[in-house]
Amino acid sequence: MRRFDDNDEKKVNNERWLLTYSDMITLLMIFFIVLYTISTVNSQKFQQIAASLGKTFDGTNYVVGQYSGNSILDSIKTTNNTNTDNTIESQLDKLIKQNNLQNMVTYKVDERGFVISLNDTLLFDTGSADVKPDQKATLIKIGNILKAMPNYIRVEGYTDNVPINNSQFHSNWELSVIRATNVVEILVNNVKIDPAKISAVGYGEYRPIVPNDSDKNRQLNRRVDIVIMNSDYNKWEPNQ
Predict the structure, then answer these.
(1) Domain encompassing residue 57
(2) CA gap 71, 184 in Å, rounded
(3) Same domain for 158 and 178?
(4) Do 175 and 198 lie in a common domain?
(5) 158 and 225: one domain?
(6) With a threshold of 0.85, does the pTM exceed it?
(7) Are residues 24 and 136 in the same domain?
(8) For the chain, what is the domain count?
(9) Same domain, residue pair 171 and 209
């Protein structure tokens, strides 16, 4: 009988790594198959599930899509039994027309979502952050249009680049923040929008939409934007 020596043992041990290697390759293959499987989403079934859940909770279908820049409906809309009178834009158009706000209230879609811009002269006196008492009702009407949306809402305050000079505010930045906050408080206290789904920010003079080189342009830059956040932005908000 041949004697089992150390060289035979080394030979056997050197071949055992193949078993571990083959197991690792098999596991990696399974891992990538699982990744591929879960990354393949049936969009039609997803929309059907979303519609079903919407009807279950309140009978309303909500559709929040991706920004394309082509139309409001490409970004965000509400439908109720395909009745176009219930879309956000149609309700806003009616509100603007009934209250002669054509030069004071505008809306658009951008990468943030659905944006309603309110000229500062509609809501505030010069250098003040207090909402005019006679325009509080306008804010409440706008809030009632928006409160059914499941998306987060961000109220953004903006000013022009003319330095503020009064004892109440030290900077345009501070003025813009307080204005946005006061709008949020009205929407929360009077419209009952969930305070966990709305926030206020102020950008002061630092995000103008046009150059601050004329009185007309400075007036355009002084505004409050009420933004229904696009679904892409929702994931950055807390308490999802």
Answers:
(1) 43-234
(2) 27
(3) yes
(4) yes
(5) yes
(6) no
(7) no
(8) 2
(9) yes
Altogether, the residues listed in the chain come to a count of 240
pLDDT digit string, tens, across residues 47-85: 554 554 444 344 444 444 444 444 434 445 443 334 445
For 134-188, what is each residue's pLDDT tens digit?
A: 999 999 999 999 988 889 999 999 999 999 988 899 999 999 999 999 999 999 9
* Residue 35 sits in the same domain as residue 116: no
